[in-house]
Each structure stands twice: as C-alpha cells, then as structure tokens.
C-alpha cells in the first residue's frame, strides 16, 4: 500500500459512527475492523521506516562520536508528517477498500 498517496486527513476528524457501522450493524465490530487494519498499517509503516533507516546504521562500537545524518533526519520527519495509521484505516474503511469477514456470523449462516 502506498501511504504517501493516501487522501486521509493529517488531523483527527470527527466521524459519524452510526453511518460508519451501517455495513456491519454494530459499532463495536466496526471499531475493531478499523483497529485491526490500523495495526496492520502501522506494522507495515514501521517495517518500511526501519528498512530505510537501516542504511544509515553504524556497526562499529564508537561511543565517542555519534553524528546525525541529515538524510536520516529528513526520512524520519517525512514519516512523522504522514497521517496516523488509524486515520488511514478509517479512510480506507469509508472508501470500501477494507475486506473483513466475521467467522462467527459465517458459522451461523451454515
């Protein structure tokens, strides 16, 4: 997923939970779907950031000299400015991009 092109807001937005939960019929289930997707997004973003910062890692044990790389700082700032994973997940849910399935409901259908 390309989070750089996400149209999710950067700031917190108040959402109508009744309207959001119209698909599931349950506010708590909708909240859990968004929360689980948010966790997936945050893990992906963290992995991507760590992978980029790993290029700047120093493997020698020199405690006397610790320097900050300008590129490293810019990458970190860029990821700090991205929308939070919860906002991205909520936006994806509103746009219908999140696939979810409740095994308990599917079991009762059979």
Total tally of structural domains: 1
Strand percent estimate: under 5%
What radius of gyration results from the CA coordinates?
19 Å
Number of helices: 5
* Unreliable stretches: none
What class would the helix/strand composition place it in?
A: mainly alpha
Q: Which sequence of SSEs, written as H and E, runs from N to C?
A: HHHHH
Share in helix? 55-70%
Major sheet, described briefly?
Answer: none
Shape: elongated
Q: How many strands in all?
A: 0
Distance between the termini: 34 Å
Average of the residue pLDDT scores:
82
Provide an overview of this structure:
The protein has 110 residues and is mainly alpha-helical. The chain has one domain (15-102). The protein has five helices and no strands. The longest helix is centred in the middle third of the chain and has 28 residues, at 27-54. It is elongated and about 60 Å long. The chain starts with 16 loop residues before the first helix and ends with a helix. The model has no long low-confidence stretch (mean pLDDT 82).
Search tags:
5 helices; 56% helix; mainly alpha
